[in-house]
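Moderator note: this is an archived Q&A kept for reference. The question asked for a predicted structure of one protein chain; the sequence and the answer are reproduced below.
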Amino acid sequence: MLCVFIVPLVIINTGIVASVGLLFTLYIISGFGMAGIGMGIMHDAIHNSYSKNQKINQYLGYSLNLIGANASVWKIQHNVLHHTFTNIEEADDDINPPFFLRFTPHTKRYKVHKFQHIYSWFFYGLSTVSWVTVKDFVRMARYRKLGFFKGEKGFNSQLIKAIIWKIVSFTFVLVLPIIMVPLAAWIVILAFISMHFITGLMITTVFQLAHIVPTTEYPLPDHNGIVEGDWASHQLMTTSNFSPKSRLFSWFIGGLNYQIEHHLLPNICHVHYRKISHIVAQTAKEYGLPYHNKHSFLSAVGEHFKMLRQLGRMDNLKTG
């Protein structure tokens, strides 16, 4: 996956690419590699489950920085908030999108949401462009207020590191191609956006299929901030698997089709999820707990489409 991401960019940066079609093809191939890094390398590494050697996990986690995002911010957003408060509005940052997207029945509904099942996919494609440009900094400011950084010094250190990594990434992925490729800069920028569109569409869709579907739940805390039930049951109620029989697909997306197993056992490498899934499903059945599973990727996409449409039409369910 690292080669799929890097090699096309190296070819572009040699300056030998003079064809618009070839330029877009190479950037799009790189986009598939970027998605593979996001789902199959950095995800396990930042969960400390890629290797038993924590240094290897640390270094491979930096592959997220290489593609323009930030491993430290992602660890807070994903490992801490998403995995602890799955599908809980405001606490789970994965379901706190811009106002024109509605991912829970508890958030305010606007008229534009009526069409979100149609336009959401376009914004999924642009999600990583937002991620590598502004979203990391917005979340850093939020997490600073929540006390996730060790004082001003800790925050400033992380901020400087984030800026340096982004300069390195953008230099290699966009600035050098604009300089080296004998085509207009706007064409290179469009090709760069096409790379991110492929990555964003794949990564966002895969993650959304696991939580934003009609079978999953969106619990709210009580007035004391406590969510009913235990953590493991909560993960089963708010998470769904899909396409469990496709080994090639599972390999490409880093086992994220087994999201239930990942949420229950985040410190286990994804290569074990398929075998573990039979034990988890049987145990859930034994205790009368849900085990949501869609037989194919397309059926899961259909369910997510249905849920987006439903959320765009149903009233706000938040109570005081």
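Archived answer notes: The radius of gyration is 20 Å.
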